[in-house]
Amino acid sequence: MSPRALCLLLLAACAARPDPEPPAAGAPRPPNVVIVLADDLGYGDLGCYGAERIRTPNLDRLAREGARFTDFYVAQAVCSASRAALHTGCYPNRIGIAGALMPTANLGIHERETTLGELVRARGYATAMFGKWHLGHHPEFLPTHHGYDEFFGIPYSNDMHPGHPEQPKAHPPLPLIEGDRTVEVEPDQRRFTTEFTARAAEFVRSHAERPFLIVLAHPMPHVPLAVSAAGAGRSAAGLYGDVIEEIDAGVGVLRDALAEAGVLDDTLFVFVSDNGPWLAYGDHAGSSGPLREGKGTSFEGGVRVPCIVRYPRLVRAGCTIANPCMTLDLFPTVAELSGAPLPPLAIDGRSLVPILRGDPGAGDPHEALFFWYHANSLEAMRAGRWKLHFPRTYRTMHGRAPGRAGRPGSYDTGARIGLALFDLVADPGETRDLAAAHPDVVTRLQAMAEPMRAELGDDAQKVAGRARRPAGRVQR
Ligand code: MG
Fold it and tell me: Does 382 fall in a domain?
């Protein structure tokens, strides 16, 4: 065989591989994807979710132009685990991520997992991650090693530094990272929201000619709160309100950048939070509105968050979606819209395209959603209108002195709930236990939980789970 024939044969073999392949020339352009993720922003912190003292005109406008989800969940009410679900479409315990990774952690996202960045980069997207990552801080775990062309931000939470109010000596100086290189330590956090927003807007301007994915994961309003000089003192709700209003203003900046680049309506624009408010911080915490408890619990205030989706090519302006959905659904949604095949390993998310499109008969994407916490305890589940809690202790600030000015109060960690059933349509605040009144519903939901326990485990019942995949690990 001549070298030319061999070359043609190899080219043909490559061309025959179904994926990954960017869309053909002339094919309709798949949407850009912009995900703005807030940190510890509560269900009641936005105007369009009932906030009265915090003004969020840009997010309210986004909701008027798109869909506002009333029953949207994170997979776990804590930073790393929640992000693991967003980035991979998996329950975090499926891929070995639990809780919040500390600066001492030798764990991170495993190279076998497919991130949102990897998913769409194979379809020719430009990809960027700005702000907080929190899926492993060692270089091999950073976004530029997991599908992102660019990363500028911090590797974990903004309180993991020597200024931590309770553990001042526990953490090294906070690194600010460009790519996988630390470019600064202990950056002035007052720049965070505006600088990460500006980088996202610049990425829009410099990549408008091809599809792109931007994940803008604000470190705020996770404590310590910080706001730029221009944003300070503007809100009627103190420093916390200033921080939210600056995030909201950033949504306006990003929307303007998309509009000026002529791609606003070609963009799936998502705003969501990683978990509910960190209530121990009192006046530096957000509000879960009518919902019970907050971050670090599997009550609605911990796991139900605001979610707004704007994409006029698919989503009718001003609609409200009440189906229970979860951040892990964004991964297969983006896969469907970008034309990317789902990864070979099992994921848990379901595409939200039928719901977003308003398909007649589009029901809940999941028969049930499940909430694990701590290392791997199944704490609660939601199916339709019903939420079933499994017996456990939990933390609460009820009866405790709230934190003030950046210093936390202390939780009562011994509160108890037994097997309890709530009707979230009639009682979103989870105040009336209906387990005794509806034993049939309890039995039905318990039966639905069993296969999930067998698959992903439950420490409370000493079930390991047969389908869990370990996280990545470094030996240092
Ligand atoms: Mg958080």
Answer: yes
Q: What is the DSSP letter of 380?
A: E
Task: Establish if 331 belongs to a structural domain.
Answer: yes
10 part of a folded domain: no
Per-residue pLDDT at 2 exceeds 60:
no
The CATH number of the domain where 174 resides is what? 3.40.720.10
- Span 370-380, pLDDT tens digits: 999 999 999 99
N residues, the chain: 476
Q: Which two tokens stand for residue 434?
A: 């209906």
Choosing from 357, 387, 416, the residue where a domain stops is: 357
Name which of 170, 177, 278, 266 is nearest 222 in CA terms: 278
CB contact at 8 A, 295 and 279: yes
Q: How many domains does the chain have?
A: 2
- Residues near 22 by beta carbon (within 8 Å), at least 6 away in sequence: 122, 123, 124
> Tens digits of per-residue pLDDT, 406-440?
999 999 999 999 999 999 999 999 999 999 999 99
Peptide bond into 224 cis (omega under 30): yes
Same-domain check for residues 234 and 113: yes
d(CA 164, CA 367): 41
Does 283 lie in the same domain as 159? yes
Q: Phi and psi (nearest 5°) for 372?
A: -95, 155
E strand or H helix at 305 = strand 304-310
244-256 residue pLDDT tens: 999 999 999 999 9
Would 2 be classed as within a structural domain? Answer: no
**238-260 vs 192-207: helix crossing angle, rounded to 10:** 10
Q: Identify whether residues 62 and 123 lie together within a single domain.
A: yes
**CATH number, position 394:** 3.30.1120.10
Residues 348 and 408 in one domain: no
Which residue, 325, 372, 387, 380, is CA-closest to 350? 325
Q: Which domain holds residue 276?
A: 29-357
Structure token pair of residue 418: 């037994």
Both 88 and 142 in one domain: the answer is yes
Q: 277 CA to middle of ligand 1, Å?
A: 8
- Residue 120 CA to ligand 1 center (angstroms) comes to 25
> What is the whole-number distance in angstroms between the Cα of residue 77 and the centre of ligand 1?
7
Tell me whether strands 420-423 and 386-389 are parallel, antiparallel or unpaired.
antiparallel
* Residue of 412, 333, 404 lying closest to 120 (CA atoms): 333
Could you tell me the distance, in angstroms and rounded to a whole number, from the CA of residue 441 to the centre of ligand 1?
32
Strand-strand pairing, 126-132 and 325-326: unpaired
C-alpha 210 to ligand 1 mean position (Å): 32
Smallest CA-to-CA distance from 164 within 154, 177, 174, 155 is with: 174
Residue numbers annotated as active site: 79, 134
Q: Based on the domain organization, do 352 and 452 belong to the same domain? A: no
